[in-house]
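Sample 1 of the test manifest.
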Amino acid sequence: VSNPQIELPNSPVSVEAQEKFEAEIRLIRAYPMPREIEPQICRGKQVGL
Amino acid sequence: MSNIGIENLTIKKATELIRSRALSPVELVQACLNRIEQVDDRVKAWVTLVPDQALAQARQAEHEILHNQYRGPLHGIPYGAKDIIHTSGIRTSGGSQVEPDFVPRENATIINKLSSAGAILLGKTTTTEFAFLGGEPATRNPWNLAHTPGGSSAGSAAAVSASMAMFALGTQTVGSLLRPASFNGLSCIKSSYGLVSRRGVIPASWSLDHLGAFTHTAEDNATVLSAMAGYDPQDPASLSVEVPSYADSLGMLLKGKTIGLPTSFFLAEEPTITQAVEQAVKVLEELGLQVRKVDLPACLPEAMASLQIVMRSEAASYHQAQYSKVPEKFGPYIREQIALGRQTLAVDYLQAQRIRTVFRNEMLKLFDTVDILLTPSTLTVAPIGYGTGNPIFNGPFTNAGLPAMTVPVGFDASNGLPIGMQLVGPMLAEPLLLAVGAQYQAVTDWHLQRPGLE
C-alpha cells in the first residue's frame, strides 16, 4: 500500500503545524473512550433529538 | 429614502414601509446599490454584484405588492450571500483560485427559500479561501478600516455593518458567523446543526458546517431564520422538525430562566470585553434572569482537538480530487490543512467523532441545570490587519451542534470596535436565545450604533 502523502504534490507542512497536529492526535488517542459511544457524523438526527 | 436613511433602517422598519407602500422595493434596492457605490471601495465586501437582476426582481416585487400579492416580511428586502453559496447563473468562486469563474446551474436550497419569501439577492460577498482560515480577502471592518471584519464570512458581515444590504448570509464551521458578527457590532444566530439546509454550499466540513444570517437586530434575525429554516430532503443532515415563527417567540417570559457563566476557558484577553459582558449580565438580571456559575465538560480540550481533526480530514476528502490536479491553485494555509488531513488515520478520525458525541452529551447534561450559557463572543475585539481573529470561543458550540447567538454589548473606546456576548442553548433553543437577544436590545442601544463611514 502506497503512502498517499508521498503521492501528493506541493503539500508543505510547517514544523509548528505538524507538531500541533501530532499533539492533537496524542490527546484524542489518550481519551478513555467508553465502548458504547458511537461516532458523531453529519446527520442531524444524531445531535440530540 | 432621503427622510429615512438606509444606514438606520432595519428589516422590521423596511417591511413596515414596504407593506404600507410608503417604500418601494425598487427604492430600497437602489438605495443599497447607491450605498455600495458610496462605501465599498473602502470596505471591499463584495465579489460580484448583480444590479440589473436585483432591480428587475425589485420591480416584480413592487408589482406583486401593489396587486395585493404580499409574500411576507422579506418581500422586497435586499441581501447578500457569501461566495461559497451556489447561486444559479452567478459566479461562485469559493474565495479560491481553483475555479474562480465557476457558475452554478442551480441555487443552494437557502437561496431558493429566500427567493420564495421575496428577498432580493444583490450579489456575492467575500470569503476566506473555501471558508477556512487563510486566503483572507481585502475586506475591511467598517468600524475601523485598519482592522479585520473577521471571517470567514468577512464580506457578509462587513456589508451589513456598513448598511450595504439589509441582511447577508454566512456559514460557520468553527466561528465564522459569530466572530465576524461580534467584530462588526451585529446580531447573528448559528442555529442548531441541521436546522438550515447546507445543500448547494461548498463544504468546509460536512460534520460542522452551519448557515446563518447577519442582521442589525435579534428581531430581524428571527425573521430571516424563519425563512431559512426547515427540512430539506436533499441535505442528509437536515432536521425533520417543525419550524416555529421565531418572531412570535421574542416576547416570551424570561423571568426565572437561568444563565450559566462558565468558570473557565472563556476568559477574554481584553478587560474591556470582560467589563462589557459583565454589564450585559447585569442588564439580563434586571430583566429577571438568574445567574449561576457552571463547570464545562472535562473533555473540552479533547473536543476542540477533535474539531480540528474532523475539519481537516473532511476538507482533505472533499478537495482531494482537485488538489491532486492543481495543488498550486490552493493557498498555503489550506494546502497545509489538506496535507494534515491526509495524514489522519481513519481510526483517529472516528475517535475524534466519538469524542464529539461525548462532548455533545455532556453539554446537553449541562442544560439540565441552566437554560442558557453566556460568554464573551470573542477573545479580543477585531484585530488590526487581515488575519480574521481567533474563533476559540465559538468552536465548542459549533462542535456540539448547539445553537449560539451573538448580540453587541459595547465598544472598545480605544479603537471604536464593537464587543459581543455569546448566548448558547440546548438543541432547538433558538426561540429562547432570540428572545433573550431581543429583550436585551429592547433596553439597550448598542445595536442601534452605526460605523461612521461618511
